[in-house]
Amino acid sequence: xxxxxxxxxxxxxxxxxxxEDHRGSLxxxxxxxxxxxxxxxxxxPEEYFSISQKGVVRGLxxxxxxxxxxxxxxxxxxxxxxxxxDLRKNSPTFGKHYTTVIDSRQPKLLFxxxxxxxxxxxxxxxxxxxxxxxxxxxxxxxxxxKWDSCGIIWPDxxxxxxxxxxxxxxxSMFNSPF
Length: 178
Fold this sequence. Notes:
Elements: E1 2-5, E2 12-15, E3 18-21, E4 24-27, H1 32-37, E5 46-52, E6 56-63, E7 71-77, E8 79-86, E9 97-103, E10 108-112, E11 116-122, E12 127-133, E13 142-144, E14 160-161, H2 163-166
Parallel strand pairs: 6-14
Antiparallel strand pairs: 1-2, 2-10, 3-4, 5-12, 6-11, 6-13, 7-10, 7-12, 8-9, 8-11
Site (Participates in a stacking interaction with the thymidine ring of dTDP-4-oxo-6-deoxyglucose): 137
GO molecular function, one term: dTDP-4-dehydrorhamnose 3,5-epimerase activity
Catalytic activity: dTDP-4-dehydro-6-deoxy-alpha-D-glucose = dTDP-4-dehydro-beta-L-rhamnose
């Protein structure tokens, strides 16, 4: 695994190693000694995946304190346009975003620290997104900002957005607790 810095402090891309042979491939998405060497969290008490059709936008989500969390995300089938937004009010990159394409055929993950919103758009039908979080889901701390309120240039695909995500507050109206 190789760590690559992004334009947002504390947010990293991690290039994953895949092993291929005549049977297919194997990709390791977590290895505790490597994460320790890279100074990334070692405990992810919650993990889930979602399956999305092309154009589905999920996000921009986060949890507020006391249940805020870091995330390690990847795409295990298909591809996504992935987004992290810095919500740390004392950060020089507050309100700025980082985008990357995560393609299951060229495996990598994005590590998103506490104090960031996260979201993605599925670029293909039947895309499978995998999320690991450093805290468990807490409905009392569940929060988000509207997906199109941060100046992100999303792919030119008609977006499919849930009612909940469509009704999130604008970034300009969000009072950050981070």
